[in-house]
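Morning run. Coffee first, then this:
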Amino acid sequence: MAIWEYLALLTAVLFSGGVALLIKTESKNAVQFLLSFSGAYILGITVLHLMPSVFSGEFKTAGFWLLGGFFIQLLLEQLSKGVEHGHIHAHPGAKPGFAISIMLGLCLHAFIEGLPLSNYAEFHDALHSHGENSEDHHLLFGIILHKIPAAFALMILFVKSGYSKTIALICLFLFASMSPLSALITAGMKMDLNLLANLVALVVGSFLHISTTILFEADDKRQHTVSWRKLLVIVAGLGLSMFTLH
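And here it is:
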């Protein structure tokens, strides 16, 4: 991974969380539109890029790792309470431990997502024969896009829970550093294609859970209808993922 990729992972989270700390309140419409766009984009790149990479080779265990990623995300949400979907459950006076529990869930999720990042481009090239020095950033952009609303929601949660700005910033930095940290750790490891395929499949399972949950929740009133504005945002997210095909 290039330095700019590590910085992009870090700064996107810090910027989004920093904005939340400044305004100290959520704009539900803005967050929902951002979530709908990111959910659609993540679903698009998962189906169009990540899954074909995982299942184009003879990786017999990749399907199990995909299911594992889906189930692990289900378990992690017991800690995070769906903050990665932009949910903000806290109210003034909420117990401080509630926000810490959610941050731990998000940190574990972010660390797992970063594991295949450093080697994903090489893995993709090995399977699709794009030649030397080809670059594929679909996984990177997918992680960044869904971390932006998660960081925003997390910091609003810390504000509502009564934490000081200093503590909130420390926790934000810890969350922001998880994916770059795991990517840095695996950058120095030699991994065969089978292990890489399994790690990508693990992230695919997580992405499928997150993106489908976001899109299922696009109907705020649970009336099986989606507003035209939100539908256009979803189409834009899917369109962008299709535009990246090459």
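The chain has one domain: 3-243. Good start to the day.
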